[in-house]
Amino acid sequence: MTKRQNQEERSHQTQTRVTQATIECILAKGIRATSTVDVARQAGVSRGALVHHYPSKTLLMQAALEDLLNREVESVREMAIGVSEGRMNFDSLLKALHEHFKGDMYMVTLEFLTNARTDPDIMSALVPLAARFNDSLEKIWEQLVSSSEHTSHQNRVALNATLCMMRGMGAQSIWRDDPELYRDMLIFWKETLLKLGFSASDSTRSEPA
Q1: Is the whole model's pTM more than 0.70, yes or no?
Q2: Do the Cβ atoms of 88 and 79 come closer than 8 Å?
């Protein structure tokens, strides 16, 4: 391994530690209360090393958001593989989406959404990354519910209605811990989609719970 490769590897490792530490700090304290000093301490690096890679807090927050959503996109790709191999069906996709939108990922993105309303820098970083994330979900949805009964637009509307419900459930979980209610809401929405004709394709079809 050359000296240049060693330097690049160390740089990548530092960036990975810093972005993960940023996500952890945001989850614990929120974006506004998180400082570069907090992140450097959490990552176990000097503030100078942090600033070398991310000269401003805005750039640091953008990098953290990109890292977070990139990992989610990779997770979505794994879901797509599960669909193509018959290991994931309509039921399991909805459950997986519910898990996505009640976990740490959503809580951190909720922080970004809240701050994006008044911070144009956060907004400019959020929009393209969120669009790419949603596009990945739409491709999985199209593959899973593909049929001649609905147009691509109808499939897209059904997916985005589902995502809006998932986001609402995730937000409500902050102040209301009621797993049985959320389970019943998920079953209700799944049955609603099934009644509207949205179900898994023939190769992955399953009955509602």
Answers
A1: yes
A2: yes
Token pair for 1:
């391994």
Q: How much is the pLDDT for 207?
A: 42
* Interatomic CA distance for residues 181 and 187, integer angstroms: 10
Residue type for position 172: Q
Between CA 196 and CA 33 the distance in angstroms is 45
Q: Is residue 43 a contact partner of residue 30, using CB atoms and an 8 Å limit?
A: no
* DSSP string over 150-162: S-HHHHHHHHHHH
109, 170 Cβ separation under 8 angstroms: no
C-alpha closest to that of 143 among 88, 99, 190, 73: 88
Q: Residues 131-161: pLDDT tens digits?
A: 888 888 788 787 777 777 888 898 889 989 9
DSSP 203: G
- What mean pLDDT comes out for the span 79-91? 75
The Cα 82–Cα 140 span in angstroms is: 10
- The answer to whether residues 140 and 200 touch, using CB atoms and an 8 Å cutoff, is no
Q: Which residue has the higher pLDDT, 19 or 94?
A: 19
pLDDT digits (tens, 9 = 90+) for 166-198: 989 988 888 888 889 988 998 999 899 888 888
Specify whether the CB–CB gap between 69 and 60 falls below 8 A.
Answer: no
